[in-house]
Design brief:
single chain; alpha/beta; 4-stranded antiparallel sheet; 3-stranded parallel sheet; globular
Length: about 230
């Protein structure tokens, strides 16, 4: 496929073989985010794990101090007072059996699912639908909780879930290209720190093997990991 002049210019602005410091990488990503929309800034980490083994799975949640810049749509399984609490906290969709039926019918206009513990009997029936999309509520991630109001506010306030994929890679957003460089650096540090703290017992040798950053449409920038403690 032929490249546009803009794509060629962006490609030559980044040395594909060079490892950049985090600050320099962020500056390059921001500079090359030249689309008319506010591009997301994504981080890709190659970890020294095989997630097919239970003791090498990496999964967790972190609250980015500067937010994500995204509007997160939240669905909550709850009844009674807890349903009211979720609605007041800003959840877009709240329900029980009716929400289950809507999801089974293919209506899934949300980015995060939260449930009270008593609703897991209903939510469990949606495992084959929510599971593959990474939306299944999980107590370890704080998405199965009686404190639904707090969970909704956290989801909307910059909380990000991360999970290693089959190839041992984690993809996660750290904000928008319009964010100040210092804000993207703060979010980068928070995400990486959370992932390193979630190093599984089965991981041997170097944990974070490669890292790169890019905007939605921009070229990838390789990151020098030697300056990152614990990586």
């Amino acid at each position: 496929m032929a490249q546009t002049k803009k794509q060629k210019a962006m490609a030559t602005a980044v040395d594909r073989e060079k490892l950049y410091g985090v600050e320099e990488a962020i500056a390059l990503v921001k500079k090359n985010a030249a689309c008319k929309f506010d591009e997301s800034v994504e981080l890709a980490l190659n970890l020294g794990v095989d997630p097919r083994h239970a003791d090498q799975m990496v999964r967790g949640v972190v609250s980015l101090p500067k937010g994500t810049g995204k509007h997160v749509r939240v669905a909550v399984f709850a009844k009674g007072d807890k349903a009211d609490e979720a609605t007041k906290a800003g959840a877009e969709v709240v329900g029980a059996e009716d929400l289950m039926e809507a999801i089974q019918g293919g209506k899934m206009d949300f980015d995060r699912v939260i449930a009270t513990p008593d609703m897991m009997g209903i939510v469990g029936r949606l495992g084959k639908v929510l599971g593959p999309k990474g939306l299944m509520p999980n107590p370890k991630l704080g998405t199965v909780t009686p404190n639904v109001g707090e969970a909704v506010k956290a989801a909307k306030g910059g909380q990000v879930e991360f999970r290693v994929e089959k190839a041992g890679i984690i993809h996660a957003g750290i904000g928008k290209a319009s964010f100040p460089q210092a804000d993207l650096k703060a979010n980068f540090d928070a995400l990486l720190d959370a992932i390193i703290k979630n190093r599984p017992s089965g991981a041997k040798g170097k944990f974070v093997q490669k890292a790169s950053m890019s905007s939605s449409m921009g070229p990838g920038v390789k990151i020098d990991l030697t300056e990152i403690a614990g990586a």
